[in-house]
Specification:
Layout (H helix, E strand, L loop, with lengths): L1 E7 L4 E9 H18 L12 H7 L2 H21 L12 E7 L3 E9 L4 E2 L20 H12 L4 E4 L11 E10 L2 E14 L9 H5 L5 E8 L12 E15 L5 H7 L7 H34 L2 E2 L3 H20 L5 H8 L3 H29 L5 H15 L3 H8 L2 H19 L3
Antiparallel strand pairs: 1-2, 2-4, 3-4, 5-11, 6-10, 7-8, 7-10, 9-10
Helix pairs in contact: 1-3, 4-7, 7-10, 7-13, 8-10, 11-13
Protein name: Trigger factor
GO cellular component, one term: cytoplasm
Function: Involved in protein export. Acts as a chaperone by maintaining the newly synthesized protein in an open conformation. Functions as a peptidyl-prolyl cis-trans isomerase.
């Protein structure tokens, strides 16, 4: 195989060119002919059972050369990747056969070039937003964590027809929102299921539902200041049709609950509380650091020069769109039904994702620049400790994690990401 590169700076694109010729390509063509021949369907014969002379009549160069390309594609990609070219891809290259004949094959792997970036100061930043808060576990947070375990044994009882909604109830209802008498996009839902007090809706929505009964009613709420530009601070009326109200009965908070849970190393309710406090504190620490570092990155972004190709942003929008679709489907609803209920189109959703996509790419480029400048490395001891922690968390052997779940390269990458966060957290604010 031969390797070369091409860079189109004005388009922000690069190409890895792999040429396969000689015996290597001859063998691929032979393999392509065999594979294509085995898949040819000839009237009167079962697949793969026709005489060779009949197969030869149907075996066109287009069919077997295409099969030859497919048979060697992965090998060509791995070869190109191993060349360690200074023309580096920013995203997954798209393979395109450019020249194909009996004698040679030329494959082009086309990709967006890594955007140019001039990073601003990333150490010693000060700002009123950069506050390192003292972390504590509140009673409400602990109760919520315990309730998640209690949910495993929850029982639901349908309320009578004259029953009213109370905090903790499960409610099925339709709703539609109006601002100044006009329905707005994204403000409609059918057969929506909600646990009152879960915080799933905007502030005030669930509280306003308490005391309502079956049938039609309405509530008034105000969208929060940090909501979308079109809706923030707006007063809205939601018309409801409540279809079903269920009382949810949770088990008591006692040693019997712990016994039913059968958690390793935990036999009493006090031990459960202690374990959960530690977990919550660890989670809050990680979350607090990430929020702080995201603010640091926002400040770095203000003083950095980053030019991102539109094609790269569009690809990231597609990634976010898939994530959004998966999130919608996790709510037991198809994206098609979601768009029908909310009145949103594909373009509406993608337009809303544009800034998020741009910001995600910029954040990656900034942290990548910090990483390469500071030259973070992972020691064997750090790697060993990480695997030990994971083995304890999942309750499996370290070798199983290494071979079946998380290979060393992936774990090292995770440790470096943690080091970048710790570095930006420690050196700013």
């Amino acid at each position: 195989m031969k390797f070369s590169t091409k860079k189109i700076a004005e388009k922000g694109q690069g190409t890895w060119i792999v040429t396969i010729e000689g015996k290597e390509w001859e063998d691929a063509v032979k393999k392509g002919k065999s594979k294509a021949a085995a898949n040819i369907e000839i009237p009167g014969f079962r697949k793969g059972k026709a005489p060779k002379e009949k197969v030869a009549q149907y075996l066109t160069p287009v069919k077997y050369l295409n099969a030859a390309v497919q048979s060697i594609m992965d090998k060509a990609w791995n070869f190109a990747r191993d060349q360690k070219s200074d023309v580096e891809p920013f995203n997954s290259p798209v393979p395109t056969p450019v020249k194909i004949s009996e004698k040679e094959c030329e494959l082009h792997f086309v990709f967006d070039l890594k955007p140019e970036i001039q990073i601003g100061t990333y150490k010693g930043l000060k700002d009123k937003e950069l506050v390192k808060e003292e972390l504590k576990v509140s009673k409400e947070e602990l109760d919520k964590a315990i309730d998640q375990y209690r949910e495993r044994f929850v029982m639901e009882k349908l309320k009578e027809k004259d029953g009213k909604i109370a905090k903790g109830d499960s409610v099925s209802f339709d709703f539609e929102g109006f601002i100044d008498g006009k329905a707005f996009k994204g403000g409609k839902g059918l057969d929506f299921k909600l646990i009152i007090g879960s915080g799933q809706m905007i502030p005030g929505f669930e509280d306003a539902m308490v005391g309502k009964g079956l049938g039609k009613s309405s509530i008034n709420v105000v969208f929060p200041k940090d909501y979308t530009e079109e809706l923030k601070d707006k007063k809205a009326e939601f018309k409801l049709e409540i279809k079903e109200i269920k009382e949810r009965i949770l088990p008591a908070k006692d040693d019997e609950l712990v016994k039913d849970l059968n958690l390793p190393g935990i036999t009493t309710f006090k031990e459960l509380e202690s374990s959960l406090k530690t977990q919550i504190l660890d989670q809050k620490s990680v979350q607090s650091k990430n929020i702080f570092v995201n603010k640091v990155i926002d400040l770095i972004r203000l003083n950095s020069k980053i030019e991102i190709p539109k094609s790269a942003i569009n690809k990231e929008i597609e990634n976010l769109y898939k994530e959004f679709e998966a999130k919608v489907q996790s709510q037991k609803i198809t994206l098609k039904d979601y768009k029908k209920q909310t009145g949103l189109t594909d373009n509406d959703i993608r337009n809303e994702l544009f800034e998020d996509a741009k910001k995600r790419i910029e954040s990656y480029l900034i942290t990548d620049k910090v990483r390469n400048t500071e030259k973070f490395e992972v020691s064997e001891e750090e790697l060993k400790q990480k695997y030990e922690n994971l083995a304890k968390t999942f309750g499996v052997e370290i070798d199983f994690i290494k071979k079946s779940l998380l290979p060393e390269a992936q774990i090292k990458e995770e440790i470096i990401k943690e080091k970048i966060v710790d570095f930006l957290y420690t050196n700013n604010g």
